[in-house]
Amino acid sequence: MAVAMSTVFFYLLGALALFFATIVVGSKRIFRGAVALMAVLAATAGFYFLLGAEFLAGIQLLVYVGGVVVLIVFVVMLTGSLGLMEDTPSFGRQVVAGLGALNFFLPVFGVLQFSALPEISHEAVALPGADVIGELLLNFGKSGYVMAFELISVLLLVALIGGLVIARKGGQRREEPT
Amino acid sequence: MIDWLAAHAPTLKHWLILSSALFAIGLYGVLARKNAISVLMSIEIMLNSAVFNLIVFNRYIAPKGADGQVFALFVIAVAAAEVVVGLAIFVTLFNRRKTLDVTQVAAMKD
Which CATH number, 3.40.50.970, 3.40.50.300, 1.20.1050.10, 1.10.287.3510, labels domain B11-97? Predict the structure, then answer.
């Protein structure tokens, strides 16, 4: 029963994610694209649930849907692109972009079709949860990630300060004398 | 009906094809769009499908460990930092040039 449900949700969420992703890259309105991006990211959180990674699904909703998309919407409003209608890309641009995308997708698709991939199990498996992830993150041993974890916190601090410095007001005044 | 659905459960191959399709759509957006915010949103789709792959491999190759999930957490944190800096650059760019068209911003090209 659980396996049958996972089949249904896989195809349902997969169709939704692909549909909204095409809206993100194809919509003329930037704001509509941002809302569709939110749907794509939420569908991905659903995939994480299906794969048994509940903690990651929660993180995905918190950081991406709650943080990144809201930030993008803020910038869309700050830069006055709210009602902006972007021109449809020229035909040549569409062809080149489509060829680029197909040039990635078709080889990958072919390789996946003709390669023997290992199959562990189709049964619903609960991946290790937040407790195991937390232990791995703060583990000093050989299989631990405490160094990367601390570096990520430094990176977030740098991004915070960098974002403030780049986007602060008054940066223009110093350039006027030149 | 339930047996048929259970027999057609998604395998590793299906998940990988789905994530590479999402990646290809994002790639199209990066190459075709001109507005910088649209390009950033397409990049987000690509990053998201890459993270998705990490979870899929964690589930199907090494379901006992949590290393794929830890890597996914790191990538999500780096992506959030990248979005913050990128959007700050867009706000500054718009204040100075009144445009977000990436084809118009080519001062470093020559």
Answer: 1.10.287.3510
The pair of structure tokens assigned to A149 is 């974890």
Most A-contacting residue of B83, B94, B98, B103 (CB-CB within 10 A), to test interface: B83
Domain positions in chain B are: 11-97
Cα→Cα distances A104→A83, A88, B71, Å: 33, 23, 24
Measured between beta carbons, which residues in chain A are less than 8 angstroms from residue B58?
51, 53, 127
Q: What ipTM does this complex have?
A: 0.89
Do the Cβ atoms of A20 and A44 come closer than 8 Å? no
Question: Are A72 and B12 a contacting pair at CB < 8 A?
Answer: no
Among A117, A163, A172, beta carbon nearest to B88 = A163
Q: Does residue A104 sit within a domain? A: no
Whether the full predicted model's pTM is greater than 0.80, yes or no, is yes
